[in-house]
């Protein structure tokens, strides 16, 4: 058996139906939120529904970026830059500074 074949790539990907299902769930939550919170909060629900919309739509955009983090499928989202991730992960590491000192 070999790694990195087309079958491995297909099994690791999220199905398109799952992506659409999550999108529909978030959209329905955003649409129904003002009606659900109006009886308890009254006029404040107008402002709070905007906050809920901003939060859930932002999380949805981040999750879409995580479906193809390195841009293998020519995604238009902001992709992860591996060199930046490695540099930030090693930024606070003292092990690398002490590694070149001969002792």
What is this structure's SSE topology?
Layout: H1 6-12, H2 16-41, H3 44-67, H4 82-89, H5 95-99
Helix count, per DSSP?
5
Measure the end-to-end span. 46 Å
Largest sheet: none
What is the share of helical residues? 55-70%
Q: Low-confidence segments, ≥5 residues, pLDDT <50?
A: none
SSE order in H/E notation? Answer: HHHHH
Count of individual beta strands: 0
- Structural class assignment: mainly alpha
Please report which band the strand proportion falls in: under 5%, 5-15%, 15-25%, 25-35%, 35-45% or over 45%. under 5%
Shape: flat
What is the radius of gyration? Answer: 22 Å
Kindly describe this structure:
With 103 residues, this protein is mainly alpha-helical. 68% of the residues lie in helices and 0% in strands. It is built from 5 helices and no strands. It has helices at 6-12, 16-41, 44-67, 82-89, 95-99. Helix 2 packs antiparallel against helix 3 (44-67).
